[in-house]
Write a structure and sequence with these properties.
With 612 residues, the chain is of the alpha+beta class. The strands form 5 sheets. It has a 4-stranded antiparallel β-sheet with strand order 7-12-9-10. A 3-stranded mixed β-sheet has the order 1-4-3, covered by helices on one side. Strands 11-8-14 form a 3-stranded antiparallel β-sheet. α3 crosses α5, α6 packs antiparallel against α8 and α8 runs antiparallel to α9.
Length: 612
């Protein structure tokens, strides 16, 4: 198990944030005994008698002929590496429509529409005719400093509640109202909007998840939400808090969201939400690798798992812009089978895990946080996504080769439409949100102990692939598509052995799992292991052999249940850790965790990804 003590005393990441505020919390390991944490007593669930499984296409999944042949033959994105950024003369950026009345009720990702807890009418009000105004960032803005939610002062909390109370008091048809702000996420994520296109031609839906739009869309979303709150209390310096679940002192739901009922009526608290999982309220520790079931790990072990999972999602697997941000998504692409469907490491990892962990599993659609259509109704959604946004900033500031924004024009020119704090309809672009300083906000500094919490191996020089030869099928012999409703084991050949340090810096070894076709009305998650032993206790994210996970919240589109995506897992550090760099093949194990009954994959391979 990774050492929590050594990670917790990591120095503050002063180089990552340009402005720092002093704080009252101390994450020194000597204080770990003071954490008010709670864990279930039962042990880990273990994997017994895993079976190699190669199944034909399930009857309930789409006919394989309907899948993009590029995905089947070449893998998602075809040739990897620099080709992901080659411009196309025919490509154009995703553009939200000028006419916001060109919107339909949400009809996607909501399996139980009859008993849905929130409205499916997610379209915004139309206040005036004409195209939205091109938004220009204010010059010399007042810098808003977003504080860590666990460290806010009483004065700040009073101001935050006042702002939310005033937002809730606005009429529902005011675009700045709490309800309208919540419905923005529903409209952009659950099939309400269509891409702007030429008249007379069928237009595809807009989906801002499962692609490189994920980070910039949510950054703009929070930007206007924050400015509206500040305007309502006449304080341009007001900033929303962030829930730093990536640090041990922040790994519980912030106490301000769940006040003591003996001291305050929760129903009168504007930041309270009744649709949260009662089993996960403070002081229970969040599970950054949540499967939808309780892990039952001791508290300190869970913290170690979380820190190692963050390391993988921010460093080991986030080696380049596409791996971190997600795959290309351009105008004309179908969000069901877009050009390069790929979910980024943070979106698939801690982002999805926290959504599902907070949402109430007893609600028909896991409202609120557990479903895209309803997530915006919980004030904690914005605090959660503020930390997701912070991960973007930190990732670029780690000083690691390859950690930079996409440079493709189709990413830079992608645009969305929002109402600003003055009820003016505006259009914003990705290229204008790549830096938080011109946007007028910063993050209060918090330690990032995960940056020194590289997972540790369970076994070194395992030679598992060699010992599995003849018993486990080779990937070249697999007849794709392959069903993964049970544990799957495959031997995958590596592209190069004994690479030098310079070679590993210039190209990362990546495991590609492509053409992941899944039922998007379900929460879907599977874990991937490399050269892992079949013994107990079960391997966790704290061990090197755990390569990572693929996870998605429900977000179906129209009447199409099945959606395709892909995932990437970095192997360079993993193979160093387990001392398997000389092996010509590795054993890849896929373990379904949730919603994988009809899930299939269409390709699996290991390639070298050039890093620029």
């Amino acid at each position: 198990m990774a050492s929590f003590t050594s990670a917790a005393v990591a120095p503050p990441a002063t180089t990552l944030l340009s402005k720092t505020l002093s704080h009252r919390s101390n994450t020194n390991a000597n204080q770990t005994h003071r954490f008010k944490l709670s864990c279930n007593a039962h042990n880990h669930k273990t994997l017994k008698n895993p079976q190699t499984l190669i199944n034909p296409t399930p009857k309930t999944s789409p006919d394989i002929q309907t899948l993009d042949r590029r995905n089947l033959l070449l893998g998602i994105g075809g040739l990897y590496g620099a080709t992901n950024y080659l411009p196309s003369a025919f490509a154009t950026p995703i553009t939200a429509p000028d006419n916001i009345s060109d919107c339909i009720a949400a009809n996607a990702g909501i399996s139980d529409k009859k008993d849905a807890a929130r409205t499916l009418a997610c379209c915004p009000p139309v206040l005036s005719e004409g195209a939205p105004k091109r938004f220009v960032l204010p010059k010399g803005p007042v810098t808003r400093v977003r504080p860590a939610a666990q460290r806010v002062t009483d004065e700040y909390l009073a101001k935050y509640k006042e702002a939310l109370r005033k937002m809730r008091d606005l009429p529902d048809d005011d675009p700045r109202s709490f309800k309208q702000q919540a419905m923005i996420h529903c409209a952009y994520c659950n099939g309400s909007y269509r891409q702007k296109g030429e008249d007379g031609k069928p237009r595809k839906e807009i989906q801002i998840h499962n692609s490189w739009l994920f980070f910039p869309f949510h950054r703009w979303y929070l930007y206007f939400y924050e400015r509206i709150l500040g305007k309502l209390i006449d304080d341009p310096s007001f900033a929303i808090p962030y829930w730093n679940w990536d640090s041990p002192t922040g790994m519980t739901i912030p106490a301000m969201f769940e006040p003591d009922p003996a001291k305050e009526n929760p129903r009168r608290n504007p930041i309270f939400n009744p649709y949260r999982d009662a089993n996960h309220l403070p002081p229970v520790v969040v599970d950054i690798d949540y499967n939808g079931t309780e892990r039952g790990a001791p508290c300190i072990d869970q913290i170690g798992i979380n820190l190692a999972a963050m390391y993988k999602q921010m460093i080991s697997n986030a080696t380049d812009p596409i791996s971190f941000f997600g795959g290309m998504y351009k105008a004309g692409d179908d969000p069901i089978n877009m050009g390069s469907p790929l979910i980024g490491t943070i979106e698939s990892g801690c982002h999805t895990a926290v959504h599902r962990w907070v949402g109430n599993s007893r609600m028909p659609n896991n409202e609120d946080m557990g479903n895209f259509y309803s997530a915006g109704y919980d004030p904690i959604f914005y605090v959660h996504h503020a930390n997701v946004d912070r991960m973007w900033k930190i990732w670029k500031g780690l000083g690691i080769k390859g950690h930079h924004d996409p440079t493709d024009e189709d990413w830079l020119e992608a645009s969305y439409v929002f109402y600003d704090e003055n009820k003016q309809l505006v259009r914003v672009y990705n290229k204008d949100c790549v830096d938080t300083e011109p946007m007028g906000y910063e993050y209060e500094a918090s330690r990032i102990p995960w940056s020194r919490n590289r997972p540790i191996p369970r076994t070194k020089k395992p030679k598992i692939a060699a010992r599995s030869a003849g018993r486990v099928i080779k990937v070249v012999d697999v007849k794709f598509p392959m069903k993964i409703d049970r544990i799957v084991k495959v031997l995958v050949k590596r592209p190069a052995l004994k690479r030098s340090k310079e070679e590993k810096e210039n190209a990362k070894e990546i495991l590609f799992i492509d053409g992941i076709c899944f039922d998007s009305e379900r929460f879907v998650k599977f874990d991937v292991y490399v050269d892992d032993k079949d013994d107990e206790p079960a391997t966790t994210a704290a061990e090197s052999e755990f390569a990572g996970s693929f996870a998605q919240l429900p977000h179906n589109h129209t009447d199409k249940m099945f959606v395709t995506s892909a995932a990437r897992f970095g192997l360079t550090e993993l193979l160093e850790d387990i001392e398997a760099e000389d092996d010509d093949s590795v054993l890849v194990t896929i373990v379904p965790r949730a919603g994988c009954h009809d899930t299939i994959i269409s390709n699996m391979k290991i390639e070298l990804m050039p890093i620029d």
